[in-house]
Amino acid sequence: MPSDAQSSAPPSVLPFLVIDDFLPPDIQRHIWLYFQVENFARVDVSSPTGQWAWHDGAALRGPTIGYRAKWHAKYPTGTAVDALMENIVRQEERFRPVLGKYDSDWNDFSASPALYPSGAGLSWHRDAENNAGSFVYYVHPAWNVEWGGELLLGDPAQMAIPAALGPFFNPAPPDLNDDGASWLNTHLENERASETLLASGTGAFVMPKPNRLVVIRGGLPHKIAKVTLVAGAHMRASITGFFKRTAGKPTR
To answer: What angle do CA 228, 234, 240 make, to 5 degrees?
Structure first.
């Protein structure tokens, strides 16, 4: 049976949830085989000024699948990802302490396969305000604690960081307002982001244990630690997605 691996604190205290053995082993294996045949593109080529900074390395990403609304594709796809999406809906009650109720607080979600080779990670950020939260499911069949790739999660108090600082905690200077920019990525300078996050400088981490699902409340700063050289040819294989907030629902 799946097990909740969250700490002993009450569910309402921590803005994330960890569930081990989320899928039956045969479904996890099927998804791992799906990764062998899916097409992936390097994110530093497909979105060089987007979510990934230049120093995040050469992560790879596959097509984004929407459950209700179409992104690159729409459920059902006829692939193994369908089983993961079906289990997320089937088990949504377990996510309520973090996300709220399906069809009330959130009403759609996405799923994107991703591969992180040695040297790849993802800088500190928080998700868009229209997301009730996000998830990551670890697909790889084995992982070693020295291979890196941990999910780093900020202090829950950092959810109070003003929205005006943007997803990278790096608001655009006033002289860029005329160009329509309200925030900047941190790939060239991150002094404001560093100062903001270091004010607390604490948080939690979750290792990328196979067949583990992590659900994160919207607004919580998070980061993917780089996969280490020790990992060699082993890639951090995951499916990530966003839970879309129901229109008119306030941020949590």
So the answer is: 85
Per-residue pLDDT band at 123 (split at 50, 70, 90): very high
CA-to-CA separations, 239 to 87, 182, 195, 248, 252, in angstroms, rounded? 13, 30, 31, 28, 24
Nearest alpha-carbon partner for 100 in 213, 247, 243: 243
Task: Categorize the per-residue pLDDT at 18 as very low, low, confident or very high, splitting at 50, 70 and 90.
Answer: very high
45-68 pLDDT, tens digit each: 755 455 667 788 899 999 999 999
User: What's the token pair of residue 119?
Assistant: 């040297």
**What are the C-alpha distances in Å from 71 to residues 36, 110, 124, 136?**
22, 8, 25, 18
Residue 34 has, within 13 A of its CA and on its CB side, a CA count of: 23
Q: Token pair for residue 8?
A: 């002993």
Residue 180 has pLDDT above 80, yes or no: no
The CATH number of the domain covering residues in 17-245: 2.60.120.620
Instruction: Write down the domain spans for the chain.
Output: 17-245
Which pLDDT score is estimated for 9?
A: 39
State pTM to two decimals: 0.91
For the residues of 10-40, what is the DSSP string, one character each? -TTTSSEEEEES-S-HHHHHHHHHHHHHS--
